[in-house]
Amino acid sequence: MSSNSVSGKRELRPHVPRNFTRVIVICLVLLGLCAAASLVLGSRLVGIHELLDGLFRQDVDSYGANVVRKRISRTVFSLMCGGALGVSGALMQSVTRNPIADPSILGVNTGASLFVVCGIAFLNISTANEYIWLALAGAAITAVFVFGVGSVGRGGATPIKLVLAGAATTAALSSLVTAIMIPRSYVMDQFRFWQVGSVGSASWSAIATFVPFLIIGVLIAIITAPALNALALGDEVATGQGVRTGTLRLIAALAGVLLCGAATALAGPIGFIGLLSTHVIRLILGPDLRFVIPMSAISGAIILTISDILGRLLGSPGELEVGVVTAFIGAPILIILAMKSKVRSL
């Protein structure tokens, strides 16, 4: 496929939004503050000296320093997963031209969950590498199925048809997950902690496994952003600019599934991050995906990290899983967006 068919025949110089510099500075500052807060806050509050010991003095073996070291991998993993889910949400909204498209709403998370629980029940999987490949397969198959069902009939894949197809698929796959788990207590014990969605069990090996998928998915998203802008104007306009719309949709959707599937495999099915982060950025910067995609990554990382911190504080001395927190935040916002936008296409 030629470069023109991905990025568009006539690439115009990006029109930088007036407030872009201010927004990116604010977001980067918030990102740094969230990372620092994630290291300090939790069931055990860490002081500044303990924080510095944990970050820079490996010879110090105090309890506080060890808590900080444990939280470093958790914070890095949270930022990476949030960024991946943010970019995945932006891609799925663009490919489907659906303003409320999100991996969790379109059933992709549930498809990944079904394949993971099948792997636990029938293949005895237990490692991050095994989770990732099964979750990616489940996410990809579910995405194709939902888009196919939503495309049937007059008008093709309209926003409301895709949401309904995703909701029906999610309900059906959730029932299958439950049917597999109920007679197998060992599967339920292993799966239930993953199913809630958490970044608490993050390890450096899991992060190393996740990094290649994150890099590939984000690079594809950035490369396809100009062509996705053309696609937002309609298939006819995009075709006139040299964009192969079918190929573009396939590549962008695969990148979204890659990011979502890898994050879901390691952190569990965390919902609403892609929806929230992309909507916030679109409201502030406008629809240009050359800016929306990278900023959705930053805002997604911020939202997920804040949710993780809230879960630790609200559940103290225990912990409220991040998937529960994002559901509490995201569900009301989704209802408001659906009511205000009346499910209009992008």
From TrEMBL:
GO terms for cellular component: plasma membrane. One of its GO terms (molecular function) is transmembrane transporter activity. GO terms for biological process: siderophore-iron import into cell. InterPro entries: ABC_BtuC-like, ABC_transptr_permease_BtuC. It is a multi-pass membrane protein. Belongs to the binding-protein-dependent transport system permease family. FecCD subfamily. This is Iron ABC transporter permease.
